[in-house]
Amino acid sequence: MGFGQLVFLWTAIIPITVLLYYFFRKKYIEKKISSTMFWETVMKETKVSPYLQYLQRNALFYLQMLALLLLMFALLQPYLKSQAIAGEHIIWVVDTSATMLATANGETVFEQHKKEMNALSEQLAGKPLTLITTGEEPTILLRDETNVNVIKSTIDKLEVQYEQENLPKMLDFTKSLLNGKETAIYLFTDHVERNELPLENENLTWFVKGAPENLENVSILRFGATASDKGVAALIQLENETADDKKGTLEISSLENGEVLLKRAVVIPAKDTLSLSFKELPDAEGFTANLLVDDDYTTDNESSVLLQKQSAQTYVDGNLHELVSAAFQAMDIPVSSVPTEQLSDLPGEAVVVTNQTSQLSISESPVLLIGRNDENAKEVNGTIATERDDVFAYADMSDIFVSSLYPPFPEYETIAQVEEQPFIQRSDRGDLIILADIQMTDWPLHPSFPLFLWSAREQMVTNDNEIGTFSPNERKSLSLVADEEKNEWEVFSNSNEYIKTIQNGGQFSAPSRPGLYVLTSGNIEKHFAVALEQQEKHLEKGTSFAIGSASQEDIQETVKTSLVPWFLLLIVLLLMIEWEVQRRRGITN
After folding, report:
1. Is 450 within the bounds of a domain?
2. Is the same domain home to 522 and 545?
3. What is the pLDDT of residue 123?
4. Global pTM?
5. How many angstroms separate the CA atoms of 354 and 511, rounded?
6. Which residues pair with 231 in a beta bridge?
7. Position 558 in a domain
8. 445 and 354 within one domain
9. Is there a single domain that holds both residue 302 and residue 320?
10. DSSP 20-50
11. Is 536 helix (H, G, I), strand (E, B) or coil?
């Protein structure tokens, strides 16, 4: 406790003066008694309760002295010191991506962060709090909230949404909330580099709360299945991010009844990947792969995939590099190589892979264009950035090198870029265009190349019973015609758990949890899958640090809470009591 205005200590003279006056006043009361008949009775009552009698006679004095003392203390401006979060404006950014489900000491990183937020909410000291969750679309859950109970209730309701945090978008969104005051942004995540945070604002301080450093992760990096004449073939790639070899068990089960179709013991080398292929699996609507292994992040130990029932023939232009045909064959997709001049004679249900730009307009078949024959390529240098699209659900493009690119098609949608230049595009009817020849990239050296071709082909092959693979919470416009009586679609998990309802004509929004789902409307059923994004299958070393204008100081500051309002309230209460005592005794002249 402290005082803000010690100069008013001189006001202690007032209660001292009153006290001295009390000492020198007459200490008896003159009374006229007409008879001494009841004198003995009065004296007995006085002797039985002398303190009460004394208090009753001097009540006004004590009330006045106490009021004067409280007034003196109020003038001194007393306050209480307490520790509070530094900054005038507090912003909490909560990472709700799947990697927050990594477990340390029997508790997920997300739950640990929620406990820390609850503890910090007690130290806000009335400062306004803004709470944001990450994702494709950052969401403000609280805006300048000061009520601690509301803040704690919101924290308790937080859930992991599984989609990647999209850090650049979140940072841009957070900048729009800055108001020129000293702002402290707490980022509750697992890992972020210092150079990723903007520091140009001198009033801004970042406090990063990361995950523990020693988390281990083994994941199903990629999983795909395709049908062939010999049966169903599956390709699985497992990744071990730890420094030791990991032993585990891989299980592949059927979508329909959960029956385990294959069980295999595996050993995944340290800091390496293990690729496995399985042929002649039983036919099924889809498959789920489970990796039973001892690690700290189990969300990426399960992956589900739908199996396309319709098998259109794939024709590859003979002018393309032979690695294109080899990639399709690696996924057990039958392909036929045809001369360029015969492409126009192919059946409409075929998938055409070529570099002839004219096929985009004259072919009735879906086209996968790799390169262009009508333009010259220009050199490019940079990393690949992809949009959220199900064609990249199993294909990680981050490590691919591209040396040159062809000019893009202005009217087509761009889904992948190299230094803001289009790399992969999609036409209105669903054709996919890769604006580079195979020789201009090192893509064929990566496992993602055959997986991308498989995913691209699966998208082009129509299937009325399936609507594709989506990222968690992905929103997409689909032409879904509901049953006339129901006029709505209901989403159920593969275990028949109700998820949500989508009105007919409304935008489709995928569930957040990865897995297989069913979309129903009356007797109509459509299957789809939600796949964990590739970025969420890797655990980085946890980081916690403070950086910015106040990074060298304590993350807490001393807050002075004034006690003057409480003193004034007590003075008013004492004056009311004094008035009541005076009223009962009667005002004497």
Report:
1. yes
2. no
3. 84
4. 0.66
5. 36
6. 228
7. no
8. yes
9. no
10. HHHHHS--S-----S-STTHHHHHHHHHHSH
11. helix
- Asked if residue 320 is part of any domain, the answer here is yes
Using 50, 70 and 90 to split pLDDT, how confident is the model at 565?
confident
- Tell me the two tokens of residue 242: 């730890």
Higher pLDDT, 80 or 543: 543
Q: Which two tokens stand for residue 377?
A: 């390529």
Do 403 and 324 reside in the same domain of the chain?
Answer: yes
DSSP letters for 383-443: -EEE-S-GGGSS---TT--B-EEPPP-TTSEEEEEETTEEEEEE-TTS-EEESS-GGGBSG
Copy the structure tokens of residue 408.
């893009």
Calpha distance 334→170 (Å, rounded): 44
Q: Among 401, 432, 460, where does a domain finish?
A: 460
- What's the CA gap between 38 and 479, in Å, rounded? 105
As for how many domains the chain has, the answer is 5
Give the per-residue pLDDT at 543. 84
555 has a pLDDT exceeding 60: no
Q: Are residues 61 and 112 in the same domain?
A: no
Give the span between the Cα atoms of 534 and 303, in whole angstroms.
12
Q: Could you tell me if 525 and 579 lie in one domain? A: no
Q: What is the mean pLDDT of residues 428-451?
A: 90
Residue range 544-561: average pLDDT?
Answer: 63
Asked if residue 176 is part of any domain, the answer here is: yes
DSSP string of 54-123, one letter each residue? HHHHTHHHHHHHHHHHHHHHHHT-EEEEEEEESSSEEEEEE--BGGGG-EETTEEHHHHHHHHHHHHHTT
pLDDT digits (tens, 9 = 90+) for 478-490: 766 677 777 888 9
pLDDT of residue 24: 57
Q: How confident is the model at residue 589 (pLDDT cuts 50, 70, 90)?
A: very low
Query: What's the CA angle centered on 394, arms 489 and 463, to 5 degrees?
Result: 40
pLDDT tens digits, one per residue of 51-64: 545 555 667 777 77
The mean per-residue pLDDT over the stretch 85-103 comes to: 88
CB under 8 Å to 61, separation ≥6 — which residues?
22
520 and 444: one domain? Answer: no
User: Domain of 476?
Assistant: 466-530
